[in-house]
Design goal:
single chain, 176 residues, alpha+beta, Helix Hairpins, SH3 type barrels, 2 domains, 61% helix, 18% strand, elongated
């Protein structure tokens, strides 16, 4: 019986991978996302699905909790230290997933990021796993994914037109 459940889980694993990959490709093509970007998202979801099914397979295999818990606690301790040291990298990867599914801007759009007094504006060249590349004139700006989700972003910013000073106020002062 355990072998049958084991085989069913392996079959479900491959079906899940295929379904998620085709869904991401369909979603990406619908939103005109670059193939390069879709590959990042597919790799990330495949890793998550693999970890989920690995946990299920360990559970079904009949290993005792104490055997698995000692091993996993050691592994998670090492991973925890590594992730804590690289927290910003992890947040950028998570932000990359959010940007893929919910970011209203695409490669080629002109944007301006509202970041205090800084002028961060230009054309989106690429959205990668860790950052967004923005081209402004001859400069290439690298902006972290986690920050672009926290800041206001304006699409197709129009040049600001300063209000002209009225000549009538100057004429009134000259007449008196």
């Amino acid at each position: 019986m355990t072998i049958l459940i084991f085989l069913i889980l392996i079959l479900l694993f491959f079906v899940s991978i295929h379904f998620s990959n085709s869904s991401i490709k369909h979603f990406g093509q619908k939103r005109d996302v670059s193939l390069y970007r879709m590959k990042y998202i597919i790799k990330t979801t495949n890793i998550a699905i693999s970890i989920l099914f690995l946990i299920l397979l360990i559970n079904v295999s009949g290993l005792q909790y104490s055997q698995v818990s000692i091993f996993l606690s050691s592994v998670f301790a090492v991973i925890g230290v590594a992730l804590f040291a690289q927290w910003s990298i992890l947040s950028n990867i998570t932000a990359s997933l959010i940007i893929f599914f919910g970011f209203p801007y695409r490669v080629g759009d002109q944007i301006r990021i509202i970041d205090g007094g800084e002028d961060i504006s230009g054309k989106i060249e690429e959205i990668s796993l860790f950052h967004v590349l923005i081209k402004r004139d001859e400069e290439l700006i690298t902006y972290p994914n986690s920050l672009i989700l926290q800041k206001g972003v304006i699409k197709n910013p129009k040049p600001r037109i300063e209000p002209e000073k009225s000549d009538s106020s100057e004429n009134n002062t000259e007449k008196s």
